[in-house]
């Protein structure tokens, strides 16, 4: 079986309000499924169910053929990353990244080696001894990313992780995510409300609306679908370009 | 043109008066106690002398009072912290269930004197619990009942302090738990592979203690200087610092006053030193 994750007929409701309706999709190793969705569409609930933090009302979750239903969140190897980095304020950058190894009782020399290696990769070596509140927003997000990567998760669940960053830092983080996820062959489900971000980070695309997930077979179909509003955005930028003087648009 | 609204300021004479009351007078009191301890101030001051300081070497009363107070404060605050952490980290549903949230506020409304009196009636050898045990045939007389108040280890004082302090700590930890988004930290650490116990030990506990440290320190100092409860539930020996100092200051023999001033001066100095050291430690923790 080549699928890393198979989700079949997943449903969830809170009280009488359905949040997820009959969701089915699968993910192969190394894929990044970018799911576009507006606030309240059910994306956080979907991620929490995959992470084991919420129980579904119906449906099955299989990871490499194994039923995830009875597996507690701390044994799933699926890290859920919030919009906020949520770094441990009482630990240094080094210790934040080392957290996953410490709780697994990895030997000290191995922790030192792996953490230093990852900090260098994330361009954080100079900040290893710093407290989280001495870092910028982008640096904090990188530490959070490193803390998740160090345990080599089989699936990363990202809930609008760059939503609180300024435009430039956000673009940098998207590039960093692309680079690292390709290098480490990370499989992820990346939820965002920004179509540009979805197109930047995704290798596959989905659209979640009122609890229903549509997975697109190709990027072309994702762009063509009116609900994703990608074409509207393209039209907007084209109209802006047409209003600019020729010299400005060529420069 | 409209002028910008300026924040109202406390008039400077009022601010100076407040500063004088909270800093100036205590410092003046400290200086007076120091001068009194060397014979330069007080009703029977007769010029500089070092004999009260030299007598410290032979008088162990102050040392025992300080040790006893330290033990009571450490035990009371320690037990209160442990109980509060246990409730907040292991019994969140119970904490939300009626009537516990309301009951937690009750001890906060009780004056220390009332709690001391209530515990004396409940736990003394002639108290309600001892009488109940006697009626049930569990003891043959008052001597058979364990010494729970006015005991050598200060169990009665510790019990009363815990009764007053742990609900406050519980409410404090609960507020910090919510404000620091510890529920989200819990979910995150679970997905990172931590067990619920590891989350409590490595994340929630240190985070709660770190955020609450200044309040815990203040509570420790308050317990160290408690008066009402040790007076009611403590023994004449060993005494807690406040009772020891009050006893010495109230003696009829005015010649004993310099020694009492000396004790007061040393206690105040010790507390100030403790505050300085802990504030420094806290700053270091924040920077690390």
Automatic annotation (TrEMBL), chain B:
It is found in: Cell membrane. Keywords: Cell membrane, Membrane, Transmembrane, Transmembrane helix, Transport. It is a multi-pass membrane protein. GO terms for cellular component: plasma membrane. Pfam families: BPD_transp_1. It comes from Hymenobacter perfusus. Its main location: membrane. InterPro entries: MetI-like, MetI-like_sf. It comes from the Bacteria. Belongs to the binding-protein-dependent transport system permease family. The keyword Disulfide bond does not apply. The chain crosses the membrane at residues 20-42, 62-88, 100-120, 152-177, 208-227, 259-279. This is ABC transporter permease subunit. One of its GO terms (biological process) is transmembrane transport. Residues 62-278 form the ABC transmembrane type-1 domain.
């Amino acid at each position: 079986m080549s699928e890393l994750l198979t989700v079949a007929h997943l449903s969830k409701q809170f009280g009488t309000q359905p949040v997820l309706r009959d969701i089915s999709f699968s993910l192969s190793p190394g894929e990044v499924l970018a799911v576009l969705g507006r606030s309240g569409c059910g994306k956080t609930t979907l991620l929490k169910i995959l992470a084991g933090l919420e129980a579904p009302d119906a449906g099955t979750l299989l990871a490499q053929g194994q039923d995830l239903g009875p597996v507690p969140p701390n044994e799933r190897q699926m890290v859920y990353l919030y919009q906020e980095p949520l770094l441990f304020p009482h630990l240094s950058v080094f210790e934040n990244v080392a957290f996953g190894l410490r709780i697994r009782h990895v030997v000290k020399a191995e922790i030192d080696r792996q953490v230093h290696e990852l900090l260098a990769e994330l361009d954080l070596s100079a900040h290893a001894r710093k407290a989280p509140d001495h870092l910028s927003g982008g640096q904090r997000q990188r530490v959070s990313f490193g803390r998740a990567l160090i345990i080599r998760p089989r699936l990363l669940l990202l809930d609008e992780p760059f939503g609180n960053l300024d435009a430039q830092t956000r673009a940098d983080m998207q590039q960093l995510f692309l680079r690292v996820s390709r290098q480490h062959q990370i499989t992820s489900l990346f939820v965002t409300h920004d179509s540009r971000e979805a197109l930047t980070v995704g290798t596959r695309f989905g659209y979640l609306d009122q609890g229903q997930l549509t997975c697109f077979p190709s990027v072309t179909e994702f762009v063509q679908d009116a609900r994703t509003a990608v074409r509207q955005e393209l039209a907007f930028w084209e109209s802006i370009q047409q209003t600019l003087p020729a010299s400005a648009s060529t420069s | 043109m409209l002028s910008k609204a300026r924040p109202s300021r406390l008039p400077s004479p009022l601010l100076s008066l407040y500063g004088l009351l909270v800093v100036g007078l205590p410092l003046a009191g400290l200086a007076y106690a120091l001068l009194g301890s060397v014979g330069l101030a007080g009703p029977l001051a007769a010029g500089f002398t070092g004999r009260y300081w030299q007598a410290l070497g032979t008088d162990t009363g102050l040392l025992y009072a300080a040790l006893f107070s330290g033990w009571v404060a450490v035990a009371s605050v320690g037990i209160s912290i442990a109980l509060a952490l246990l409730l907040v980290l292991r019994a969140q549903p119970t904490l939300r269930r009626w009537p516990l949230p309301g009951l937690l506020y009750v001890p906060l409304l009780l004056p220390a004197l009332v709690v001391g009196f209530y515990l004396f009636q409940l736990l003394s050898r002639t108290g309600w619990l001892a009488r109940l045990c006697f009626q049930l045939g569990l003891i043959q007389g008052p001597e058979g009942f364990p010494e729970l108040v006015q005991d050598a280890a200060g169990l009665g004082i510790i019990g009363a302090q815990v009764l007053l302090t742990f609900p406050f700590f519980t409410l404090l930890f609960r507020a910090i738990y919510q404000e620091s988004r510890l529920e989200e930290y819990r979910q995150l650490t679970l997905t990172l592979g931590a067990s619920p116990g590891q989350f409590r030990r490595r994340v929630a506990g240190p985070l709660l203690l770190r955020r609450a440290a200044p309040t815990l320190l203040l509570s420790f100092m308050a317990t160290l200087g408690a008066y009402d409860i040790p007076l009611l539930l403590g023994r004449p020996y060993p005494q807690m610092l406040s009772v020891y100092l009050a006893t010495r200051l109230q003696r009829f023999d005015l010649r004993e006053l310099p020694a009492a001033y000396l004790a007061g001066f040393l206690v105040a100095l010790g507390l100030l030193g403790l505050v300085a050291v802990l504030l420094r430690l806290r700053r270091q923790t924040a920077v690390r």
